[in-house]
Amino acid sequence: MKRFTAVRVLTKSMGEGDVGIFIGEGICKEAYAYDREGNLYLPAYEGNLSMALGVALCTNRRVFVYCDDDYFLRNLSDAAHIAISKCENLYMVVLVSGYYNNVGKHPTIYSSLRAPHAILFNMGFIVHNYGRQFKNLKNPINEIKATWGRIRGPLAVVLDVEYGTKSTYSEVMGEQDSIKRVLRFIGNEEIPNYKYVPPITFEDAFQGEE
Amino acid sequence: METFFEDIRLLRLGEVMVKAENFWGHLCNKLNYRFFSGVPCKGLDNLYNKMSSSFMHYIPAANEQIAVGMVNGASLTSTKAAVLMDISKVNKVDLDFNIKNSMAILIIAAGIEKYKLDKDIYSLDLTEDYVSCLDRITKHIVNKAKPGVLFIGEGVLV
Lengths: 210, 158
Description:
Structural class of chain B: alpha/beta
Radius of gyration of chain A: 17 Å
Helix content of chain A: 40-55%
Radius of gyration of chain B: 15 Å
Strand content of chain A: 15-25%
Distance between the termini of chain B: 18 Å
Number of helices of chain B: 6
Largest sheet of chain B: 6 strands, parallel
Strand order of the largest sheet of chain A: 2-1-3-4-6-5
Number of strands of chain B: 6
Distance between the termini of chain A: 57 Å
Helix content of chain B: 25-40%
Shape of chain A: globular
Oligomer: heterodimer
Number of helices of chain A: 10
Order of helices and strands of chain B: HHEHEHEHEEHE
Largest sheet of chain A: 6 strands, parallel
Number of strands of chain A: 6
Shape of chain B: globular
Strand order of the largest sheet of chain B: 2-1-3-4-6-5
């Protein structure tokens, strides 16, 4: 299964009020084809994985962050922060192709790691692998939606995808526009949340301070 | 009585001194900055000693880039947030994302001497008039939508 199919299915499995953060040019283009109001498209800069953590800590919406295995390996310490955060509304999705998708067939070291799922588990994640859902089911969207509805984070979804991407995608919306849109989306109380209580609620925590 | 003698002592010393609890009081309760992250720094010891979860939240980070990322994420939820770090690390942190996307970020940095910062980063030294310093830097970074560094020199905070 190609990465663009995985991105399509996982994007459609998110709820109406969820925030989706896509990191990396290729993933952003593939997700932009199924654009949602709550999507944020970010370049593969250092620190963008921890931006998802910052969002999840301060909102009661579910936050899904999508990245490649090469970006994940470069930002392992960000992933460790996510794992120990106990943010039940934060879900990290790693799309493992085993290659640097932007450059050509240069392999990453992910497949050489002895037990990459164990690394995530020992950091503190709940680890899911949805290979079965994609292999045997015609429409995995409903099942993944139901699974995400029952589970609490921090969850790491690791999905093996085949190398390859389409060349026909249009340019993604600008980062600044994407940021402004997500700012409005998160603050819009008319868009329903997933009934999650965040670890810190700023509205209640500091009432009545001098 | 104790605070009276303490104030006299500070006046006689003739040094610029700002009380950490007053600093937090204005930054958190008046300006409503509630979320902080950073890498522990020796020069901010007095600030760390007066932190309290009753008026703010602090998340220590493994490195400065993670702290900046978390603060940027908190800003996306309209929560006012700031980074605490050593001044020598400010130039090593990648703030291009904030500069390019006009995302304001407040950095409170301490150190022995002030380093020359990038021209896109606004900086201000903390003086005894901490109220106007904090008001000025927070207004500037919001109006210009750029990063701002509040430099706290050695011995300024008590």
